Amino acid sequence: MRFEHESLAQRVCFASGAAAARVRAEVERLGASRVMVIAAPAEAELAQTVTADLPVVLLWDEVVMHVPVEVAERARAAAAEHRADLLLSVGGGSTTGLAKAVALTCGLPIVAVPTTYAGSEATSVWGLTEQAHKTTGVDARVLPRCVVYDATLTVSLPVPMSVASGLNALAHCVDAMWGPRVDPVDQALAGEGIRALAAGLPAVVADPAGLPGREQTLYGTYLSAVAFSSAGSGLHHKICHVLGGMYDLPHAQTHAVVLPYVLAFNAPAAPQAEQRIAAAFGAGSAIDGLEGLRRDVDAPKALRDYGLKETEADDAVQAVLDVVPDGNPRPVTAEDVQRLLRAAWRGADPRTMTAGVTDDSTTTAR
What is d(CA 122, CA 230) in angstroms, rounded to the nearest whole number? Predict the structure, then answer.
């Protein structure tokens, strides 16, 4: 066995019901006295609760999905104008992503308080969108110094959004199983992440106000992000970044829809990874485990439900081909991408990807 694994330097605090106290302690530990809070209007009340005792100099609420460059530039200018010495993000992936965009150019430390299961808070990956093209990169400056996970802050997240966001986290786990830099540590983290998410998401659906399911889902989210950050972005994330950048599709729902098609496509060419995924689900096969979970939580089913046109799916084929990661378990052709995107657009049975055939008469998977 030979591999190299680099762990990220980050402090992680799980503290259900104690976010404000933990955040205050972390801000003091970092010696900050001029905090810029980044929170979308929908999270304004949560942000006020979390930051009540902090030396806040600016509350920034212009948060846009996929982090457009012009939004990032305005936030960067505001941070400089107010001489901020720490960024505190309270919200989902778009909020964390904006904080990262600011830190990328100024190096300010970030304390992240997630309110969804996006996972961006535990990675050194940044993303910016300009002229319908999403660019991503890796930089140590954007990794939050500390993450405070408080499951009570996710209780207000509606069940459908919780499901989509949690499946986005699960996509991190699946991609990490065969990412370009994957190692056995990544796979161990991803496997435990799948197990936790598969247990947590149905519990969230059954009892949205209960903390046990929310806590398991946050735990799985963290593991998924750490594994993904180390293993690197696989085919699934490349596809979703192309679709999100080109057509401004909702981030979590796009991941939730596309995931089973990429899993079914890659699994036959990666039998060991497929077995680990299946075992994490407690299922006979990886795709059976994922489809069972998706059925139990009423997962998003088709890209057309989120505004994508069939012709747009075809138009994205070349853009996806241009970013297929090195070392994908299976060679990827234009025909493969077109078939995958069309199946995801329709909500067809993902097992058609395993067989390598297309059947336009396939009924929507339930």
Answer: 11
Q: What's the CA gap between 260 and 286, in Å, rounded? A: 9
103-135 tens-digit pLDDT:
999 999 999 999 999 999 999 999 999 988 888
**Partners of 125 in the beta sheet?**
138
User: How far apart (Å, rounded) are the C-alpha atoms in residues 239 and 173?
Assistant: 16
- pTM (two decimals): 0.91
Helix then strand count (H, E) for the chain reads: 15, 8
What's the rounded mean pLDDT across residues 340-356? Answer: 88
Residue 21 CA to residue 95 CA, distance in Å, equals 21
Distances 165 to 22, 47, 179, 217, 353 between C-alpha atoms, Å:
24, 20, 21, 10, 24
Average pLDDT, rounded, for the chain: 94
pLDDT at 186: 97
- Sequence-separated (6 or more) residues with CB below 8 Å from residue 317: 334, 337, 338, 341
User: Which residue type does 143 have?
Assistant: L
Alpha-carbon distance 243 to 27, whole Å?
Answer: 37
Q: Which two tokens stand for residue 211?
A: 């903390």
Question: Where do the DSSP E strands lie in the chain?
Answer: 11-14, 35-38, 56-60, 86-91, 110-114, 125-130, 133-138, 146-149
CA distance 366 to 292: 9
| Tokens found for residue 14 | 């799980």
Segment 258-271, tens digit of pLDDT:
999 999 999 999 99
169, 289, 294, 295, 341 from 298: Cα distances, Å: 16, 14, 6, 5, 21
Tokens of 205: 């659906």
How long a stretch of residues is the chain?
366
